[in-house]
Protein backbone atom coordinates (compact mmCIF):
# COMPACT_ATOMS: atom_id res chain seq x y z
CA UNK A 1 0.00 0.00 0.00
CA UNK A 2 1.54 3.31 -1.11
CA UNK A 3 2.05 6.05 1.40
CA UNK A 4 0.22 9.28 0.55
CA UNK A 5 1.36 11.14 3.62
CA UNK A 6 4.48 12.55 2.04
CA UNK A 7 2.53 13.75 -1.01
CA UNK A 8 0.20 15.88 1.09
CA UNK A 9 3.20 17.31 2.88
CA UNK A 10 4.67 18.41 -0.43
CA UNK A 11 1.46 19.95 -1.72
CA UNK A 12 1.11 22.03 1.42
CA UNK A 13 4.11 24.09 0.38
CA UNK A 14 2.12 25.57 -2.51
CA UNK A 15 -0.19 27.13 0.06
CA UNK A 16 2.66 29.04 1.63
CA UNK A 17 2.61 32.82 1.39
CA UNK A 18 4.68 34.21 -1.48
CA UNK A 19 8.03 35.44 -0.29
CA UNK A 20 8.41 39.19 -0.03
CA UNK A 21 9.90 40.48 -3.24
CA UNK A 22 12.16 43.50 -3.28
CA UNK A 23 9.36 45.50 -4.83
CA UNK A 24 7.07 44.69 -1.94
CA UNK A 25 9.74 45.88 0.48
CA UNK A 26 9.77 49.37 -1.00
CA UNK A 27 8.38 52.04 1.28
CA UNK A 28 6.37 54.97 0.01
CA UNK A 29 6.28 58.32 1.78
CA UNK A 30 3.92 61.23 1.29
CA UNK A 31 3.97 64.92 2.02
CA UNK A 32 1.50 66.14 4.64
CA UNK A 33 -0.69 67.37 1.76
CA UNK A 34 -0.92 63.82 0.42
CA UNK A 35 1.47 64.22 -2.51
CA UNK A 36 3.73 61.25 -3.22
CA UNK A 37 7.29 62.31 -2.41
CA UNK A 38 9.60 59.39 -1.82
CA UNK A 39 9.91 55.71 -2.58
CA UNK A 40 12.78 53.96 -0.85
CA UNK A 41 13.89 50.42 -0.06
CA UNK A 42 14.44 51.15 3.64
CA UNK A 43 12.20 52.50 6.37
CA UNK A 44 13.12 56.09 7.23
CA UNK A 45 12.74 55.16 10.88
CA UNK A 46 15.77 52.86 10.62
CA UNK A 47 18.08 55.44 9.04
CA UNK A 48 20.58 57.58 10.95
CA UNK A 49 19.90 61.23 11.70
CA UNK A 50 22.04 64.35 11.67
CA UNK A 51 22.96 65.73 15.04
CA UNK A 52 22.66 69.32 13.79
CA UNK A 53 19.02 69.35 12.76
CA UNK A 54 17.69 65.84 13.25
CA UNK A 55 17.27 65.34 9.50
CA UNK A 56 17.16 61.75 8.24
CA UNK A 57 20.28 60.78 6.29
CA UNK A 58 19.83 58.86 3.03
CA UNK A 59 23.06 57.67 1.47
CA UNK A 60 22.71 58.44 -2.23
CA UNK A 61 26.12 57.35 -3.49
CA UNK A 62 28.26 54.30 -2.91
CA UNK A 63 31.27 54.97 -0.70
CA UNK A 64 33.72 53.18 1.56
CA UNK A 65 31.22 53.59 4.39
CA UNK A 66 28.46 51.69 2.61
CA UNK A 67 26.30 51.18 -0.42
CA UNK A 68 23.84 53.74 -1.70
CA UNK A 69 20.24 53.34 -0.69
CA UNK A 70 17.78 52.79 -3.53
CA UNK A 71 15.25 55.61 -3.62
CA UNK A 72 13.43 58.06 -5.84
CA UNK A 73 12.53 61.56 -4.75
CA UNK A 74 9.56 63.36 -6.26
CA UNK A 75 10.28 66.95 -5.28
CA UNK A 76 11.22 70.26 -6.90
CA UNK A 77 14.63 71.85 -6.37
CA UNK A 78 14.39 75.38 -4.98
CA UNK A 79 16.89 78.14 -4.20
CA UNK A 80 19.76 77.06 -1.97
CA UNK A 81 20.30 78.64 1.44
CA UNK A 82 23.44 79.28 3.42
CA UNK A 83 23.18 78.30 7.05
CA UNK A 84 25.49 79.15 9.89
CA UNK A 85 26.77 76.09 11.65
CA UNK A 86 29.17 75.68 14.48
CA UNK A 87 32.58 76.03 12.89
CA UNK A 88 31.45 77.33 9.52
CA UNK A 89 28.70 77.62 6.97
CA UNK A 90 26.63 75.01 5.25
CA UNK A 91 24.94 75.38 1.89
CA UNK A 92 21.71 73.48 1.50
CA UNK A 93 20.15 72.82 -1.88
CA UNK A 94 16.57 72.30 -0.90
CA UNK A 95 13.72 70.30 -2.34
CA UNK A 96 10.07 71.07 -1.87
CA UNK A 97 6.77 69.32 -2.40
CA UNK A 98 5.54 69.84 -6.02
CA UNK A 99 2.01 70.45 -4.79
CA UNK A 100 2.20 72.50 -1.56
CA UNK A 101 5.85 73.69 -1.63
CA UNK A 102 6.52 72.36 1.86
CA UNK A 103 10.23 71.72 2.33
CA UNK A 104 10.93 68.01 2.36
CA UNK A 105 14.72 67.78 2.29
CA UNK A 106 18.05 69.01 1.02
CA UNK A 107 21.49 67.99 -0.12
CA UNK A 108 24.89 69.69 -0.09
CA UNK A 109 25.31 69.79 -3.87
CA UNK A 110 23.27 71.44 -6.66
CA UNK A 111 20.34 69.44 -8.07
CA UNK A 112 19.46 66.98 -9.41
CA UNK A 113 19.08 64.56 -6.53
CA UNK A 114 21.97 62.15 -5.86
CA UNK A 115 24.74 64.49 -7.06
CA UNK A 116 25.94 64.60 -3.46
CA UNK A 117 26.85 61.76 -1.11
CA UNK A 118 23.70 62.18 0.97
CA UNK A 119 20.15 63.37 0.76
CA UNK A 120 18.63 64.69 3.96
CA UNK A 121 14.93 64.48 4.76
CA UNK A 122 13.51 66.90 7.31
CA UNK A 123 12.34 65.31 10.49
CA UNK A 124 8.57 65.02 10.39
CA UNK A 125 8.24 66.20 6.79
CA UNK A 126 6.97 62.91 5.37
CA UNK A 127 4.47 60.30 6.39
CA UNK A 128 3.83 56.74 5.27
CA UNK A 129 0.11 57.19 5.52
CA UNK A 130 -1.60 59.57 3.13
CA UNK A 131 -3.45 62.31 4.96
CA UNK A 132 -1.97 61.54 8.36
CA UNK A 133 0.40 63.77 10.31
CA UNK A 134 3.54 61.91 11.40
CA UNK A 135 4.07 61.60 15.14
CA UNK A 136 7.25 63.67 15.01
CA UNK A 137 5.83 66.51 12.89
CA UNK A 138 6.20 69.03 15.70
CA UNK A 139 9.55 67.83 17.03
CA UNK A 140 12.07 70.60 17.34
CA UNK A 141 9.43 73.28 16.75
CA UNK A 142 11.24 75.60 19.19
CA UNK A 143 14.72 74.80 17.99
ZN1 LIG B 1 2.85 68.78 -0.11
Automatic annotation (TrEMBL):
- Any single GO CC term annotated in Swiss-Prot or TrEMBL for this entry: cytoplasm
- Residue spans making up a coiled coil are none
Sorted alphabetically, the Gene Ontology BP terms of this entry are: endoplasmic reticulum membrane organization; endoplasmic reticulum to Golgi vesicle-mediated transport
A Pfam family the protein falls into? STEEP1
What superkingdom heads the lineage?
A: Eukaryota
Identify the InterPro entries for this entry. STEEP-like, STEEP1_dom
The record's similarity note reads: Belongs to the STEEP1 family.
* Protein name, as recorded: STEEP1 domain-containing protein
What organism does this protein naturally occur in? Serpula lacrymans var. lacrymans (strain S7.3)
Amino acid sequence: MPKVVSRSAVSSSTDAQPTESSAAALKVYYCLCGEFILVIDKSLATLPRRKTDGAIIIRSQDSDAGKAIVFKLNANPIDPVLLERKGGHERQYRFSCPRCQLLVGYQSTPPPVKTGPYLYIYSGALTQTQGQVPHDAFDGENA
